[in-house]
Design brief:
Length: about 60
């Protein structure tokens, strides 16, 4: 998941701050997700997925 979020964010040329703003979450959460130290709620994952215009399953997939 960490690699997927980072890759998807970078494909949009967004900073972590940009993604956090689009998702309505704190930048610290995005950072923690990208280094795989966060234990996010489903609600947080849905917000991040929505901002990236993908499904939660896409975030979790092993691509």
């Amino acid at each position: 998941m960490a690699r997927n979020i980072r890759r998807m964010r970078q494909e949009k040329s967004w900073s972590q701050h940009d993604l956090a703003g689009e998702a309505g979450v704190r930048q610290a959460l995005i950072s923690s997700l990208e280094v795989a130290t966060a234990n996010p709620t489903l609600e947080s994952l849905e917000k991040v997925a929505g901002a990236l215009n993908v499904s939660v399953a896409d975030l979790l997939s092993g691509e």
